[in-house]
Design a protein that fits this description.
Radius of gyration: 20 Å
Organism: Chishuiella changwenlii
Shape: globular
Oligomer: single chain
Protein name: DUF4369 domain-containing protein
Length: 301
Amino acid sequence: MKIYLGFLLLLFISIYSCSPNNKKEQVIYFGGRVAHAESDSIYLLLNNREKAFALDFDGNFSDTIQIQDEGYKKLSIDREEFTLYIVPGDSLILDTDLNQIETRFTFTGKGSNRNNYLISKSFKTDAFLSHNSELFRLSPTAFRNEIKTFNDALLKSLDKIDVSSAFINKEEKNLNYDYINFLYTYKDSFNYYNPTLEQLPINFLTELEQMDLDNDEDYRTYQSYRGIVLTDLQEKLYQGYSADALLQKIKSTSIKNGFLSALIYELDPKDPNSEVVYKAIKKHCTYQPWLDEADERMKKN
């Protein structure tokens, strides 16, 4: 589900890699029924591609897809997005009715436990954020405590279901990135929600200073980590760092490509700063469709 405030668009940027990959692909099965869907297909969004699953007149679908790596993926149904965790060899059967989505959205089959947890987490997070103005008006300490208590409850709920220790470790790390992402959002929106209060303590985001913000694997795996990294790069741009200098420092191919995609999206020929950014894109980007997109954006009147 779309659950975060602020700079959300960057969280869904596609990740492209030009490096060869010799891993053997494995098949997963995905089928089921989506009742009362408005569109004729649903989509599984992978790192650099998407797979469409056609719905019949009654919302039934059935197909397979080949993947190489397990990890967090996105399921897109109409205008809603749900996080799944897919493992090669999974066999997932979805049953949902979009007219009663919060009470009828369940998986059965191999891999269902971890994905039912993630769906439940999405709905719980939406409910948690339903009064976001009250949440973001809390003091910095109270806000931290609220987020930590919420995340601890989510992690504790994993003890009650049959999932692998590997997934628990991944989700524990995922929740930590969610936590830091919430702190980042609070920091960026603090003056809006608390105009009469003094500025945030200087050390409010110490967790960010301790993070490795150039981790290719985590960028490909965790949505919140992508949001943190790309928002940090965007803030550095606003602080006066050049796009060229930032791109030169990035070692991760996935992060560099994600940042390039974000830069291309923001190109505006009427913005005098875009010309410098455009030159940096031309220098660092090797993916021709993106170069073509950058050219087109700079031609617009």
